[in-house]
Amino acid sequence: SERSDQLSMFRKSGIYRFENSNAVFIDAVRVLNRSYSRFRVSPSAYYSRFFESKNLNEKSRASTNSRKRKRKEKKTHTLNEREQVADKRHQEARPLLLKAHEFLLGATDLLATMRNLRSDGCSLGECTDSFSQRVEQSFVELGSIWQAPLYEITLNFHHHKPNEGGGSPLAQHSEERVIPIFNNLVVNETTDDVVAEFLNRQYVIPRDCSFYMSDLGQIHNLIPADSDHGFNLIVVDPPWENSSVHQKLKYPTLPNRYFLSLPIKKLTHTEGALVALWVTNREKLRGFVEKELFVKWGVKYVATFYWLKVKADGSLISELDIFHHRPYECLLLGYCHGEVMDCKHFSRFKSMQDNQVVISIPGDYSRKPPLGELLLEYVPGLKPARCIELFAREMIAGWTSWGNEPLHFQEATHFLTR
Ligand code: SAM
After folding, report:
1. Residue 80 burial by CB count (10 A; 0-12/13-18/19+): exposed, middle or buried?
2. C-beta separation of 62 from 50 below 8 A
3. Residue 122's closest CA among 35, 46, 28?
4. How far is the CA of 117 from the centre of ligand 1 (A)?
5. Residue-wise DSSP of 89-100
6. Is cis: bond before 370, omega within 30 of 0?
7. How do residues 338-377 score in pLDDT, each as one tens digit?
């Protein structure tokens, strides 16, 4: 039947398309796994939250919080002007999100699979929670001290070369490359995963990709000498300021004006680029993006995608209508025509279906689901597209990752061997 086809496709691709709808469900682990050959992403490391069985205390705490929130909601209630605009936006999104959620709840085969995503293909030992107790390397801190230029990373390549002298068809030779880890483009140009070592920890680098780890001040080093080597897809997830204390412990943030200086146009390929920007639900921010940021970047807005966040049992991670705590985030999409292309050519870009909804179970705090594949059909220029992620904390095969901690989720502890 159609449904079981969908499920078997989902098992391979990690993408489940609901028939006749604007909605898809994605398993980030399966999608990410397409970047690796010898490794796979550990589902229990990725899905560190939103699986009920994990921590009952956490669950009861969460429900008291939402009860408190509800009480508060009732008390305050004349919305100021900005809140009214935000509420209007929410009221427009609401029916789309509910419809998408209905599709999910109707797909009983998928729901049954979702509950097990955290233990997918793991032996018992691999699925323990020990992971959450480890201390992570702080690249942000190391990169900001005077010794930063002295730190080096070691890449261990295993090259398979056809043996010219006959005999065994494949001769292996290893190459060790030791290069600066900060303010330097680190490249794995091979077709295989590479294990890298830094300060006694190991990192997995996918095939055909690179990272540049630096502060915003050095981002101009990524601008290509000629725009034929620019990018066709630019995904940006800025460290927007917000009031969450939890956020402050996780990574530093920057005031909005810093993002105005991102050289989006200079990074854009001659053929143009699709720009995808993650935003939070703060109305002040939405206004800034629409009225200032996209204008400054030379990006013409075309569509919004919604990321709807669910738990493993299919329920939303929080109630849909709590004002300051929405269970969804938005990805704003636009086209940039680069430095040499004329605005007239905007018409060359593919028109995009607005209001698509992507449903997934969130990973670690602020980690976004990998949407590159869903965007590829709208990316201008020749294939394979040249893709870059700004403020990245992870790497994807075929992509360049820039940020002050692009190795964050690449540590070997996040992976299992195949
Ligand atoms: N998209 C990422 C993910 O899915 O995991 C999350 C990105 S997070 C919202 C923003 C990132 O920007 C953090 O890794 C933070 O450390 C980084 N960042 C903050 N200030 C920065 C700066 N001045 N230069 C470069 N990166 C910075």
Report:
1. exposed
2. no
3. 46
4. 27
5. HHHHHHHHHHHH
6. no
7. 776 666 666 678 888 899 999 999 999 999 999 999 999 9
Distance 215 CA to ligand 1 centre (A): 10
Least Cα distance to 275 among 304, 303, 299 occurs for 299
Q: Which residue has a Cα nearest atom 16 of ligand 1?
A: 251
Distance CA 231, CA 305 (A): 21
Residue 395 · residue 204 · CB < 8 Å:
no
Run of H or E including 82: helix 81-106
Burial class (CB in 10 A: 0-12, 13-18, 19+), 323: middle
CB 52 within 8 A of CB 59: yes
Amino acid at 32: L
Residue 245 is predicted with a pLDDT of 66
* Rounded (5°) CA angle 167-156-403: 145
State phi, psi for 201 to the nearest 5 degrees: -115, 155
Residue nearest to atom 5 of ligand 1 (CA): 367
Q: Which two tokens stand for residue 203?
A: 């990192």
CA gap 227, 224 in Å, rounded: 6
Please give the Cα distance from 293 to 261 (Å, whole number).
9
The protein residue whose alpha carbon is closest to atom 15 in ligand 1 is 251
Q: Among all chains, which residue has been given the structure tokens 């996209």?
A: 294
Residue 60: the pLDDT is 47
Taking the CA of residue 410 as centre, how many other CA atoms within 13 Å lie in the half-sphere pointing to its CB? 28
Q: What proportions of the chain, in percent to the nearest 5, are helix, strand and coil? A: 35, 25, 40
DSSP 310: B
Copy the structure tokens of residue 348.
């060359």
* Per-residue model confidence (pLDDT) at position 125: 60
Q: Residues 188, 205: contact at Cβ < 8 Å?
A: yes
Q: Is 188 helix (H, G, I), strand (E, B) or coil?
A: strand
Whole-number pLDDT of residue 366: 92
Which residues of the chain fall short of a pLDDT of 70? Answer: 1, 53-76, 123-133, 161-171, 245, 340-347
The span from the CA of 52 to the CA of 29, in Å, is 18
- Using a cut of 0.95, tell me whether the model's pTM lies above it: no
Q: Is the dihedral of CA 31, 294, 255, 221 positive or negative?
A: positive
Q: How far is the CA of 238 from the centre of ligand 1 (A)?
A: 6
The Cα 9–Cα 278 span in angstroms is 28
Q: What is the ipTM of this complex?
A: 0.99
